[in-house]
Amino acid sequence: STVGEGTVVHVELPFRVPEERAVANAPSASAFCSVAPPTTASGTEAPGALTGAATSAQLEILLVEDDKINQLALRRLLQERGHRVHVANNGQEAVDLFAQHEFDCILMDIQMPVMNGVEATESIRTSEIWSARKRVTIFAVTAHAMAGDRERFLAAGMDDYLSKPLRLHDLEKLFIKHAVSAQELP
């Protein structure tokens, strides 16, 4: 920002537009959250590809985020895709919820009060050693995008990294990449 010149800010919001108001050639508002199915080398849809508005199975997702607005936005987007979302406000709440429930995936913010995301991930990974449960997939979801951050998060036991602002399309790519699947189909 330069004094006297102002600041330019770009914001993307995933709003749904009622059909009767949609312009014929305009992309639908739900396109922000859509996923193009992965394809094979021949250009055909890959087996098990995501189709439609939701994945084939409802996932149990633990969203660990201290910002209330981010919680609300991510929770709604994931619920609209058919997933069950539990929210923890900090790393300690995440560890406590993990001890009580099985999750298919954890979306872990990094910078939080009480216990940060790296400490929470290390605690969860340590507890899994003594547990008969399957290993949960943990994705860092953070504004930290400096060189070396991704490697630090992976070294702490996270499976992958998404930078904020999070795009649901990128998250669903990670679901496919890491074969995140529900314990039971709905």
Structural topology:
Elements: E1 60-64, H1 68-80, E2 84-88, H2 91-100, E3 105-108, H3 117-129, E4 137-142, H4 149-155, E5 160-163, H5 168-177
Parallel strand pairs: 1-2, 1-3, 3-4, 4-5
Helix pairs in contact: 2-3
Could you characterize the architecture of this molecule?
- This protein is of the alpha/beta class and 186 residues long.
- Helices cover 28% and strands 13% of the residues.
- It has a five-stranded parallel beta sheet, with helices on both faces.
- α2 packs parallel to α3.
- It is globular and about 60 Å long.
- The protein starts with 59 loop residues before the first strand and ends in a 9-residue tail after the last helix.
- The relative contact order is 0.14.
- Mean pLDDT is 75; it is low at 20-55.
Taken in chain order, the helices and strands follow as EHEHEHEHEH
Strand content is 5-15%
Tally of alpha and pi helices: 5
How many beta-strand runs? 5
* Rg computed from alpha carbons, rounded to a whole number of angstroms: 18 Å
Subunit organisation of the chains: single chain
Q: Biggest β-sheet, characterized? A: 5 strands, parallel
Q: Which consecutive residue ranges, at least 5 long each, have pLDDT under 50?
A: 20-55
What do the pLDDT scores average to? 75
Cα distance, first to last residue?
A: 50 Å
Give the helix level as a range of percent.
Answer: 25-40%
Shape: globular
Helix/strand-derived category reads: alpha/beta
User: How are strands sequenced across the largest beta sheet?
Assistant: 2-1-3-4-5
